Amino acid sequence: MSGVAHQRLSQERKQWRKDHPFGYVAKPKTNSDGSVDMMHWQCRIPGKKGTIWEEGLYPVDLRFSTDYPALPPVARFPAGFFHPNIYDDGKVCLSILNPEQSWQPSISVKQILVGIAELLTEPKNSDAAQTNAYEIYKRKDKSLYERKVRVQARKYAESSHENVKPGQ
């Protein structure tokens, strides 16, 4: 593992424990042998209050390369996640996660997760990644779009609050 990547991720973890948005979870994955994988973080993003997303606590994996922070992590929801800017395999399409667009090494895990949360409620029509969700959103079939998002929110509300401890 790259010394620079590991050092930065250790600093990120320490900073996250001191200051993170309420309801968010971000922590390195614990392997079956009890070791910690600093290059793979398991995160949860709460749906914004007052929106169709509010019931859910959405799982997002962040995978960091040894070139981090020169290169951004890959962020993924579970495969099949319904959103215009999420590929069918779950990969998040967001400019701050693209090294050829807005990625900068100073962007923190906190900023990434807040950016992804904003993307949920404010899809970008210029950056469509998922044809089905994009077409429904683009043609402004609001009731169908909202219905699909609410079903998904309930799905992640049922199982997402288990095993989540405060301060993660």
TrEMBL record:
Belongs to the ubiquitin-conjugating enzyme family. SUPFAM superfamilies: UBC-like. This is SUMO-conjugating enzyme UBC9. Pathway: Protein modification; protein sumoylation. Residues 4-158 form the UBC core domain. It is found in: Nucleus. GO terms for molecular function: ATP binding; ubiquitin-like protein transferase activity. Coiled coil: none annotated. InterPro entries: Ub_conjugating_enzyme, UBC, UBQ-conjugating_AS, UBQ-conjugating_enzyme/RWD. CDD domains: UBCc_UBE2I. Pfam families: UQ_con (PF00179). The active site is at 93 (glycyl thioester intermediate).
